[in-house]
Amino acid sequence: MDAAGKLRHWATVAVFVGPFLGMLILFQYVPVVAMLRDSLYDFSLLNPDRRSFVALGNYLTLLEDPDRQQAFLVTFVFAFGVVATVIPVSFAIAIYLNGRLPARAIVRTVVFLPVVTSVVVIATMWTFLLDPSNGLINNALATLGLPRGEYLTSKSQALPSIIVMMLWQQTGFATVLFLSGLQGIPRDLEDAARVDGCGPWQRVRFVVIPLLARTTVFVVVIMTVFSLQAFAPSLVMTGGGPEGTTNFVAYDIYALAFQLQMPGLASAVSVVFMVIVLTISLIQMRVLRAKGAE
Amino acid sequence: MKRVLHYAAGAAILAVILSIFLAPYAWIVASSFKQHFAIFRDLKPISWATFFPADPTIDNFVHLFVNRGIGRALVNSAIVSSCQVLGTLALCALAAYGLTRIRFRGSNVVFALVLMTFLLPIESLMVPLYMHVTNLGFADTLVGVFIPWIASPFGLFMLRQAFEEIPRELDEAARIDGAGHFRIFWSIILPNVRTPLATLALVTFLFSWNAFLWPLVILHSPRNHVIQLAIAQSVSIAQLPNWGETFAGATIATVPLIVLFLFLQRYFVRGIALTGVKG
Amino acid sequence: MLRLSTYAVAATLLSTAAFAGERGPPTAECPQGVLTLTVLKPLNNPPTPAVVKAWEGQNKCMRIELNEVPFAQLADKIAVLAAAANPPDIVMYDGPYTQSYAAAGILLALDPYLPAGVREDIVQPTLDEHTYQGKLYSPGTQQTSLALFYNADMLAPLGIQPPRDVDKAWTWDQAIDAMKKCQKGEGDNVTVWGLAPSRFGAGTPGFVYRDLLFVRSHGDPKAAPDSDLYKTYWALARDGRSAQGWINNAVAIGGAKYFADMFNVAKITPKAGIPNAFQDRKACFTIDVSYFVSGLTNNDPGFKWGVTPLPYVRTPIVHTGSITLGVMAKSKHPVEAAKFVIDVSTGQIAEDYARASRGLPTMKSITARISELKEYPLNIFVDQIERYGHPRPPSPNFAQYDKIVSDALRDIAYGSDAKTRLDTAARQAQPILQR
Questions:
Q1: Which residues in chain C have Cβ-Cβ distances shorter than 8 Å to A131?
Q2: What residues make up the domain containing C373?
Q3: Total domain count, chain A
Q4: Who contacts C287 (Cβ-Cβ below 8 Å, separation ≥6)?
Q5: Whole-prediction pTM value?
Q6: CA-CA distance, C388 to C221, in Å (whole number)?
Q7: ipTM
Q8: Which of A97, B81, B251, C142 is positioned for an S-S bond with B208, CB 3.0–4.6 A?
Q9: What is the average per-residue pLDDT within C416-433?
């Protein structure tokens, strides 16, 4: 390539990729760098100019702080719980909706309703659904003669309750993603499988699942990221309790920075969290992609 | 007999799905037409009255529009969300094309940079981002609400997947005919990714419309409030809310999205060759 | 509604709202232009529009712009704004934060602006709360305390008549006994609770303002300063620098257990919030502030109600303090902003507001002029504050202490082991308090 061609080449690249990259750097990387810098200081948000340099002090604190470690553990258990439930449920509903069934348009819309409702309202609503004495769920269980739950006031039930809420909320989103993947599968392929004598289950197993590998990667990554970033449930429903069992890292960071006035430590948690999440997601994509390529 | 069983099973599944997803929602909408005390009275025991306002009132809605300025908030949200959708579609489509169709040194680095931010919990960035956006002069403006998010790693990720699934034979054919990158982008690629574009528009609109934490941090004056902040004044985290108003607000805030979803659903249903397998 | 021209959209988008106060163009009446002062305040809280109007009437060339956030987001908002270049001129903040804000240098000391005699007129708990290193940061806009409200119609058939005099206040044992008798239904089928769930926070137990009193009341200020009784009463080292041994000693742990037993043993109060439980007759008793008197008077719940002093265990104690006005250190108009804060908190406007709201003023002279404050039921609140009112444990790190202790009390009410949980809280608070 000659010099003019090279210039034209890079000009084209700049026009296509430049705006996105510029905005990304301006609004994500500049703050990230600020965050990296902040993680080396001890200061308060009320007076950020009065700061003392502590080098890796915040990171050392983090290493021996049981509360921060619990926050990480809780968050990963939550993400695993959400992915492990949302994927099969939404996949099943997507298959169901892709069939020739009556009322499927209504079902699709209904399943999507929680997705379009704001998380603030959903969290508030679920707080009331899960209320141990006056909640809709316990009243319904009592009507059916089933035992009641303690939900958000119980150390063992709070996290599962929020996983169920997240399942309820995110299923519609995952379903729509799966559905758009399913509709990309040519009818002739499925028809061919049917002619070859494959039953419905076999058609799903040998035709649909392999062709949906890409969509699945996408859904798994999205759901993982969504769950790892969970924030509103802690803020609105539990305040991170009882005993830190719903103290998600994103909320922990927020609480550390704004409520406990330790933005330096919060930044250190953010940095570590970012690295861990990144690693998990990359591994996930590798594994799932390798599977899809079989 | 088998057919009857088949239909019965189908109907049962339908009923279960509908009630699980609809019951809480029916409760919200019904409650938005009830007076505060009636919401709680009708919960025990659970009956049709729980999900249906026996004595409907529109007080909650009237109060929201008259006293809480929810009309202004709806307009603000519409402006913010539309701008965010347009900005995101433009930036992401261009970048997705650049990353999938132009070979250039460092493209992997660019994509890695994008991925990193995709996985970044934005809550952790609130403080530095707030100071940064304020320094740029966007504090307490509607621009400040959406501008940081239009370079959406999510959008790029999604469109990049879609672009890669369009067979390269298509643009190679066009290139042989003498088309440049912009022609290929505009006339070959974009028409083939309508579904992903619609999906991205929908999802972006959704995120933008429902965003809460960032608007809360960056907006101060009531006249700039977006819908979630207006509702939050009655939800008011960590404060006993006025449920009737909260639910009325939730109903109002959700309706535009339902309409939009119904409108865009046909993009999903039509299912134009998204993966390119058909070609 | 959506038919906006492109121009209007662009204008809206680019309208950079001036958050800090600004001066308008000069007019005939105001040659220097009309000065706009901005106030950040919590929603549904004073200063009321009436107060603002009254002040604007006295100060023709000034205008007040109110910006509101939900109360629960107020502290976060102030924290963010304090770091910004153009914060509001005036904030209506939660009283216990005075020391935090003063230590961080975000509030302006008001001493130079105080007219003579005003300082001496302020009640002691308010001075305690708003003084940091000898300087006064707010005259206190209002004062309040908690008392026990009851549904007299429900108690009458049971022959229960709660005391009206602070000298004859119930102990909590007596109160819980009355609550048990009044409760209707058991286990999962309670229709009327003995005690309404907390009205504070999200309705969950633990809120320091209300629930730490159960613990502090187990202590005794007259005991030896190194005793558990003494430390439990103050609940935080007197210099605000340590919680270790103050919130997790044997007496305090006993107090927390006593508190938790109301939920788990006596079961006279639920673990989750019920809005308006008292007004809707779902509870016989509720713990609420003096403003609730005015709420019940203005919106008749349809039953007879009464007020009794807050019960105690060993030592009577109530928390004082309320939201209050302060001037931001970064305000470009400190003189005018301080004038607003002082006028509204101490003068005729404050008296008018106290009468209208049935609130308790922070100025002794105003309290003396309002006869209603000497009569039942408001005299109970006034007496409590004067005799045994204390601010929430003062510390430049109160906000952090508040969150950590509230979370611990909540978990203990839910069933966590009191000792383990309070030890954890003390461990979490220690490095923050000692910063």
A1: 272
A2: 6-144+321-390
A3: 2
A4: C146, C147, C148, C149, C195, C196, C198, C199, C210, C310
A5: 0.82
A6: 11
A7: 0.81
A8: B81
A9: 94
